[in-house]
Amino acid sequence: MERYRTRRLRGALLALTALGGLLLAGCSSGGTGGTSAAGTRGGMPAPAPDSTGAGVRADGNGRESGAPQDFLSTFALDVDTASYDYARRLLAEGRRPDPSQVRPEEFVNSFRQDYPRPDGNGFTVTVDGARTGEGDWSLVRVGLATRSAGSDAERPPAALTFVIDVSGSMDEPGRLDLARKALGVMTDRLRDDDSVALVTFTDEARTVLPMTRLDGHRGTVHRAIDGLRARESTNLGAGVRTGYDTAVEGLRKGATNRVVLISDALANTGDTDPDSILERISSARREHGITLFGVGVGSDYGDALMERLADKGDGHTVYVSDEEQARKVFGEELPRNVGLTARDARAQVAFAPATVAEFRLIGYDDRRVADDDFRNDRVDGGEVGPGHAVTALYAVRTEPGARGHLATATVRWLDPGSRTPHEQTGQLETGSLTDDVWRASPRFQVAATAAYFADALRSPDPRHGTLPGAPALDRLAEHADRLARTTEDEDVRRLGDAIRQASRYRE
Question: Is 492 in a helix, a strand, or coil?
């Protein structure tokens, strides 16, 4: 089964588009050798003209539209990681995740990267690559990084509405008990000028605690958390509606207003239609700028619904399966990264037709954006906070013996407060490609390992994936073990464990 869409740059177009490729390289600005510092720029890559003078492009899903295929790839940024952590839990339990639950970009974005960080708001853009050893194929990495998260005192105050699933399914160990502990840790970590509200839902929803400033009221918040008990069925729709109503009522100007949904996302009563649930989120996002952070729990987990909710709510998702992860998410990441650096962030990669024969974007299947909408700021993008890094990997086949400019990557985002648009670019030349993926920088290799792993889990052949240069899973686990020693990164060691577990469950 074809799992990655391929765009071929047909030979008949090369002469017509060569001038466009030169213009792309000539009008771009930023760093050389693959990186650039954050900032704003004017002239940007545009679709190269075809014989009629119109842009050569595919539709928004990246599929061939009947016209000659384009050399642009456009997608909304995504910092979700839930797919990887949920797959890791299933593999540890002896279950192989369904291919539909595997989103490669979330595997890749689960690991730290080595990108330079900007000094102020905005992004750095890093573009590098390495040859796979299979034909003329290479892996190209596009890295987008925001400034490091500052001290807790530097961020704006937060107004967080926690919407907590207390249905019967949440009574299993590792669900509601985990949420209570994590929320207690987070309450102690938040600042006095932060505010918290609590909404619970079973067959109906209720506001347990209206928006309450923590200054002088931490005990009240702790008592509300400690009183959470699992009860009956799951009316997720009611929980979302009540949660957003509570967030709107407690809306604080100048603060980061966010709904945090903690659930196994297994809706079974009331409004179970995702579209109507999503509409409530969309309207609150448009009218009030309230974002959604989805936290998935449970061995049986509605991964697809949670991801759709977070995407519609301009937020992201994580999955927690144990107390260590919960403490990391609620005690460290959420308080530190509660602010936003960029709204409606999108990336567009322009491949040079004179050097590139075809390319595949690995993952981001439901985050594709029509190429013409890259600068249409009414089109939804992704929300990115301080300290985040977003990685997109491409499989790229170059023309035999091709030399010169390979790709220009551009990120566009809106300032969270003023909604002023900004853009920044980075470039890659064929001469900058490393000779072998496994001789590239350690963090590049980690990204490649995660992508190869996700590809194997989506492949009809459970032994290895379909990407160029994909090693068998047992060999991939060896790469992960070596990288864990090199990077001294416990997360990479766990990646090796997950790959080994996947190699054992081949049904």
Answer: helix
Give the number of other Cβ atoms within 10 Å of residue 226's Cβ: 11
Phi and psi for 211 in degrees, rounded to 5?
Answer: -55, 120
Q: How far apart are CA 292 and CA 321, in angstroms?
A: 20
d(CA 332, CA 2): 40
* Angle at which helices 303-312 and 274-288 cross, to 10°: 30
Q: What gap in Å lies between CA 127 and CA 120, rounded to an integer?
A: 20
Q: Which residues contact 223 (CB under 8 A, 6 or more apart)?
A: none
Burial 388-411 (b: 16+ CB within 10 A, else e): bbbbbbbbbbbbeebeebbbbbbb
Please report, as a single letter, which amino acid is at residue 417: G
**Structure token pair of residue 505:** 């469950």
Give the whole-angstrom CA distance, residue 263 versus residue 165.
5
How confident is the prediction along the chain (507 residues), in pLDDT tens digits per residue? 344 444 444 443 433 333 333 333 333 333 333 443 333 333 333 333 332 222 233 333 333 333 345 799 999 999 999 999 999 999 999 999 999 999 999 999 999 999 999 988 899 999 999 999 999 999 999 999 999 876 666 788 999 999 999 998 888 888 899 999 999 999 999 999 999 999 999 989 999 999 999 999 999 999 999 999 988 788 888 999 999 999 999 999 989 899 999 999 888 777 667 777 888 788 787 788 898 999 999 888 999 889 988 888 888 899 998 888 898 888 888 877 788 899 999 999 999 999 999 999 999 999 999 999 999 999 989 999 888 999 999 999 999 999 999 999 999 999 988 999 999 999 999 999 999 999 999 999 999 999 999 999 999 876 778 999 999 999 999 999 999 999 999 999 999 999 999 998 654
Q: How far is CA 392 from CA 77, 395, 463, in A?
A: 9, 10, 24
CA dist 442 and 436 (Å) reads 12
Amino acid at 369: V
